[in-house]
Amino acid sequence: MIDETTTTVNDLETRYLSGGTGPTVVFLHDGAWGASADVTWGEVAALAVRNYSVVAPDLLGFGGSAKSVRLDQAPFGFRLRHVFALLDQLGVTAPVHLVGNSFGGSLALRALTDPSVRPRIASVTTISGTGGPWRAAASAQLGPFDGTDADMARIVHLLCGDYDGAEAQVSGRMKWARMPGHYAATMAIHQAVPEPLRLARPADPYPQSLTGATTPVLLFECLDDVLVEVGWTKHVVEVLPQAKVVKVNRLHAPNITHPEQTWALISAFLEEVARG
Fold first, then answer.
1. CATH topology for the 3-188+207-275 domain
2. In terms of pTM, does the model score above 0.85?
3. In this predicted model, what pLDDT tens digit does every residue of 262-273 receive, in sequence order?
């Protein structure tokens, strides 16, 4: 059974799903319009609670969590700190398995760039989440959103293609897209800055910043995905030679379209990690 809870973490409303017992798996959702723990991970989480303790938060700016964002830094760090603050509040002290899709997968990989956080991570699984780079040209089509059901259907099609649950996925995302502040929080980082105020951003050392991490990693390379570059996983494996790559003939979000197959692959990896 999965429970839905809204609490306050560092004075920020935080909605999360939880349930089950055992080692903790933290599911991190995608960053497309209307994303949340339930629309991205609902069916997979329902399978995971049979053998694991599940925590699936709505990231800041999304779902039922506070529409709070940091505009003075990259979109990863402040959200990761918020997730781990939630785990602290829940009393989760043992290392956790981070599992993310798309932006959530990038968050999970980026967590490994912080040596102070690495001891808290038992493993990382990323589905179509590259850590930021290696996006295909088609990924730009995820940015614009006119607020209509029809345009949300277009976005869902980019993520999932044609599948039986597409209508429910559109409905679920529209529920959260209509939440006050979601549109503004998502668009804020794209706000134009006057020329005199523009500052050059420091170069991003990723993926070299992953160097030294020995955490087990599973990379889902979805061969039909039009949103990331074909073969993107090789760039991560060059820095994390322990990373395991699984290739599936799916689009960007098999966790949504094929939850049973996706969880079977994740579960097998987690069992392998447990065996050492």
1. Rossmann fold (3.40.50)
2. yes
3. 999 999 999 999
